[in-house]
Specification:
The complex is a heterodimer of chains A (352) and B (690). Chain A has 352 residues and is an alpha/beta fold. Chain A is built from eight helices and 20 strands. In chain A, 57% of the residues are buried. The chains are: A alpha/beta (352), B alpha/beta (690). The interface between A and B is large, with 60 and 70 residues. Strand 6 (97-98) of chain A pairs antiparallel with strand 13 of chain B, so a sheet runs across the interface.
């Protein structure tokens, strides 16, 4: 079972390997930012694990962007019972003064997430899982999760840039293999800075049952190496929309040009019949014509965002409740999809 | 050197001697301790000295022991215990083996106290302990070490060991001595008669001030004479007559005047500073050793010997007032050389095995060496774990944390049950960001050994917060509060500062605003008002939380009132009309992104200054850099960066005139709460061992 939660700012993935081995990737604390109201405090996956009285055998932070790491310290504290994955580049400087409290608070929370990871590594050496290409962890009896990126070079570049600078370029996609099922978790890695190297090192990535589409299905993150034509068996592709300060991902514009010129969804739908979004995000207002939307329908109601010359600030659309913004899918040992569930906020994009 | 003429002190000491000798001859004991009290320079210590020598003269069996420590000396208790031991050793009351045990730093403090107690007890009828200012031994700033003083008070001095006790100054509260007040006044003629070279200045003062001198203590009179030598008698007399509380200021006035007339008095000034660093009576040889004495002019020597120094048997002493007043004026760097040199002086004397009471000089050597944090402190003897702890404390205060941590480890090797050493070993490693496992273990051990010390709890909890172990921090806090905040009495405000505020500040740096707020909410309102840092910390927590939930559109320091900034603005674009057109709207916001000539901003706009619409409307704005140029941004659009605050103003009813301005960087910054150490100290670098 793969559960992807993404309420438009924040991404959290839970994978259950039978019988009851859990992997949690990234986290969010759905606190409001810049005028967006709060929803729940922490990823609903934490509530699920509490209900199940389960812990996470693997807990990983793909990169310390705010929409991936908020609340990760709480996950480590409450659910981390095995490997804790992180690239392991740490901040050292701290601010003594601040001008923008919102930014400062975010920085403090990111530091807290990294502090909890490093502390756990130091206190339990077995928990240390440095996310570096080729690193693997066994989950349960018959599953393996392998880190595809960053490689040594990318880590060195990130160290040069600094802990929090442009961390998408050092984020960690992973491949989970359970029996013959493969789940590709794309993190926020961009094509030019990472996927070019990943697909060379790991050919055949398009052979998967589930893909968490990298970087909110942005144009910059898609790569032919994992988008090759439908192998014949259905694949579930899930993306988590992202919204901040009037900017949003993905862009659902239609595209007639070559792949590289298309925004993510248009390009993705050339290779897969459906793209599942954890939330309809901010595109739709009152009207939701069923959950199955064609891209063109979506464009029709999206309104295109704030207009140029509009000097009245456009209020942000209401943030979806994190509890409602999810897609879950179950896969059998042969990689066949056995179940597909959508939260009330989720939508499916199809090409008309 | 002059001997002070203190008839009152002499008279009183004679009285005391009479009673003590008589009582002993009758096989009786005094019901309660005798005490001599009076103002600072009245001669209380001198009374003990007279009594000491008279007792020795009158009864060869009596063993009078003067014990004392400099005010607020953190090693007061070990010092006093060693004085008792060395004093008894002189009279064979303590065997060689005993004194070796007392000087053995591996022996627990309690055992040493018991040993001295038993030796005092066994000759109680002969022993008269003369305690100089016992209340001043206890430094409230060092409660951990001050508790040792209580041990000495309770187990040896004031709790029925059976020996006689005479106290100079106030006695501890539980002791009810028979107080005898000492007059502060002296016999000015007697004092002046003892002067030699300084006599003419004294005579002039007598003429100028007349009867007034009757109200001078011996020390005050001598200082005024010294001031007359430096400034002239008329000037000194005039200063005295026109200055309120002049007598209290005499020592400082003299010191300051010497400083001003440094050309003439530099040599004596330096020697005064040097001697101010000496904590105990010293032999005249020290003057030669200092090398400063040899360079003094004859008149300077006379001021030193006739005005500043007192004779105490065959030793000299600088009155405590002259020490402490001067030291309070000086930074550490000014006394560094003196302490460095004195450490060697006393170490040499300790090394001479023929010297009586040499261990007391060894303790002085260690104290001086530790004050300046000498690198070679291994060559200075430590007889008590407390001395080693004190060295660690002083290194720690100097920021020499690695060495401090090592020293506390040494202390723990001698006494593994020291909560102090456990805590400070942990604390220094903690601030270094090293050995986190050991840090936590030792913080917890310190609490196990002494759970009443607020810092022990507070620093463990802050450490857990820094490490990102919030659940553990919460549990530790819940365990600590009932112990350090007893329900039956109100704790002093400093506990809330040391615990609640310190931890809350660390929580802020980890983004844990709810927890921080909860902790601040536990501080009673009337106490919060007494804590200097409370308001700022509360404000910081509130603005961070507000910004997290609502965003922030104006730099913090520009609009400190988070609940009304939109009413008090604009802050950058003109509030005045432009071209006769009034400001009708203004937006404030933050640049979220710029890309391909487009600017994304989150902007807020005031809806109403009153009523339910008082909250600003927040939204997203997309505009081009070109538009920004048209709006005549006060600074070039090209410098606009993500995270910048901007304002846009609209003027005239049709909003025809638009102005935008960036709020300059560096403006509107506010301090984050201060915490001990870099909150990311354990994050930088590789994984920590241990």
């Amino acid at each position: 079972m793969v559960i992807v939660v993404g309420p438009s700012f924040g991404e959290s993935i839970g994978v259950r390997v039978p019988p009851d081995h859990w992997i949690l990737i990234d986290s969010f604390s759905a606190q409001a930012r810049r005028g967006r109201p709060a929803t729940t405090r922490l990823t609903p996956l934490s509530d699920l694990l509490l209900d199940l009285e389960s812990k996470a055998e693997v807990l990983a932070l793909t990169h310390p962007h705010l929409d991936h790491c908020l609340g990760f310290d709480h996950l480590v504290d409450e659910f981390g019972a095995g490997a804790i994955g992180c690239v392991g580049i740490w901040p050292d400087e701290v601010a003594t003064r601040m001008r923008d409290a919102a930014t400062q608070q975010a920085r403090h929370q990111r530091d807290a997430a990294l502090a909890s990871i490093k502390t756990r590594w130091e206190e339990d050496r077995d928990s240390e899982w440095r996310l570096k290409a080729g690193e693997q962890r066994r989950v349960g009896h018959d599953a393996t999760i392998e880190v595809l990126f960053p490689d040594v070079e990318a880590i060195a570049e990130q160290e040069e840039r600094g802990t929090y600078e442009d961390t998408n370029r050092c984020s960690s996609p992973m491949l989970l293999t359970w029996r013959r099922a493969r789940v590709l978790l794309g993190a926020d890695l961009l094509a030019s800075s990472g996927w070019d190297r990943v697909v060379t090192e790991y050919p055949g990535l398009s052979n998967h049952s589930v893909l968490k589409v990298p970087h909110h299905a942005s144009r910059e993150a898609q790569h032919g190496g994992f988008l090759s034509p439908d192998p014949g068996t259905p694949r579930i592709w899930v993306a988590t929309p992202w919204y901040r300060g009037g900017r949003r991902l993905p862009n659902v514009a239609a595209c007639d040009g070559p792949d590289e010129q298309c925004h993510g969804p248009a390009r993705l739908l050339r290779y897969n019949a459906e793209l599942h979004l954890t939330t309809h995000g901010q595109w739709l207002t009152d009207e939701l014509p069923g959950r199955r939307l064609s891209r063109s329908a979506l464009e029709a109601v999206s309104g295109g965002g704030p207009r140029l010359n509009e000097t009245r600030p456009v209020p942000p659309p209401p943030a979806p409740a994190a509890d409602d913004a999810w897609v879950a899918t179950a896969v059998d040992g042969d990689g066949r999809i056995t179940e597909l569930l959508h939260g009330p906020e989720a939508v499916v994009l199809t090409d008309p | 050197m002059a001997s002070p003429a203190l008839p009152d002190a002499k008279h009183l000491s004679h009285d005391f001697a009479e009673r003590l000798v008589t009582a002993r001859s009758r096989g009786e004991r005094l019901d309660r301790p005798l005490a001599v009290d009076g103002p600072a320079t009245a001669g209380k210590t001198a009374t003990l000295e007279y009594l000491h020598s008279e007792l020795l003269q009158r009864d060869g069996h009596i063993v009078p022991l003067i014990i004392g420590a400099p005010p607020l000396a953190p090693d007061a208790a070990p010092l006093v215990l060693m004085q008792l031991a060395e004093g008894l050793h002189l009279y064979d009351g303590v065997a060689d083996r005993d004194i070796e045990e007392i000087a053995d730093p591996t022996r627990p403090w309690g055992e040493k106290v018991r040993l001295v107690r038993s030796r005092v007890s066994s000759r109680a009828e002969d022993i008269v302990i003369l305690c100089d200012e016992p209340l001043a031994w206890r430094d409230p700033g060092q409660p951990e070490l001050a508790d040792r003083v209580e041990d000495v008070w309770q187990d040896i001095l004031f709790n029925g060991v059976g020996c006689s006790v005479v106290i100079a100054g106030k006695a501890p509260r539980a002791v009810r001595p028979e107080y005898h007040k000492l007059s502060a006044h002296s016999d000015p003629d007697g004092v002046i008669e003892q002067l030699r070279v300084l006599r003419p200045w004294a005579d002039e003062l007598r003429l100028l001030l007349g009867d007034e001198l009757r109200y001078f203590s011996s020390l005050d009179l001598r200082l005024l004479v010294a001031l007359a030598v430096v400034d002239g008698s008329r000037s000194a007399a005039r200063w005295y007559e026109t200055t309120p509380l002049a007598k209290e200021l005499l020592a400082l006035r003299l010191f300051e005047r010497m400083r001003i007339k440094q050309e003439e008095w530099e040599g004596l000034l330096e020697l005064w500073i040097y001697l101010a660093c000496v904590r105990r009576p010293f032999e005249p040889a020290l003057l030669e050793y200092s090398e400063l004495y040899a360079a003094l002019e004859p008149l300077q020597r006379s001021v030193l010997s006739e005005a500043l120094l007192f004779q105490r048997g065959d030793q000299l002493v600088l009155h405590e007032t002259l020490r402490t007043r001067v030291l309070s004026q000086l930074g550490e760097s000014r006394t560094h050389q003196a302490h460095y040199s004195l450490a060697d002086y006393f170490a040499d004397r300790y090394a001479d095995h023929e010297r009586p009471q040499r261990r007391l000089e060894g303790m002085e050597a260690f104290d001086h060496a530790s004050r300046v944090g000498r690198d070679d402190f291994a060559r200075f003897p430590a007889f008590f774990v407390d001395q080693i702890n004190l060295l660690g404390y002083r290194l720690s205060r100097r920021g020499r944390r690695s060495e401090a941590a090592e020293i506390f480890l040494r202390a723990l090797q001698l006494d593994r049950y020291s909560d102090y050493a456990n805590h400070y070993r942990a604390f220094n490693l903690d601030l270094l960001g090293q050995r986190p496992r050991e840090v936590e273990k030792r913080y917890r051990e310190a609490i196990r050994l002494n759970d009443r010390h607020p810092w022990w709890h507070s620093r463990l909890i802050s450490f857990l917060v820094v490490r990102g172990k919030l659940e553990a921090a919460r549990l530790a806090l819940e365990a600590a509060l009932p112990i350090i905040l007893p329900a039956d009495r109100e704790p002093p405000p400093r506990i809330y500062r040391d615990v609640h505020l310190d931890i809350a500040a660390n929580l802020v740096h980890r983004g844990q605003l709810d927890f921080a707020s909860e902790l601040l909410g536990l501080i009673p309102e009337h106490i919060a008002g007494q804590l200097e840092e409370y308001d700022h910390l509360r404000w910081i927590v509130d603005v961070l939380r507000y910004a997290e939930e609502h965003g922030q559109y104006v730099p913090l320091g520009v609009a400190k009132d988070i609940s009304s900034w939109w009413v008090t603005g604009p802050f950058v674009v003109p509030a005045e009309p432009i071209g006769g057109e009034p400001l009708v709207r203004w937006l404030a916001g933050t640049i979220e992104d710029r890309e391909d000539g487009m600017v994304h901003a989150t902007m807020a706009e005031v809806q109403s200054e009153q009523g339910p619409d008082r909250l600003p409307k927040v939204g997203n704005l997309l505009f081009t850099l070109q538009q920004l140029e048209e709006w005549k941004l006060s600074d070039a659009a090209s410098v606009l960066d993500v995270g910048d605050f901007i304002e846009i103003g609209f003027y005239g009813q049709d909003e025809r005139i638009q102005r935008a301005a960036r709020q300059p960087r560096g403006v509107g910054e506010v301090e984050l709460p201060r915490v001990l150490g870099n909150p990311n100290r354990f994050l930088s670098g590789g994984l920590r061992e241990g």
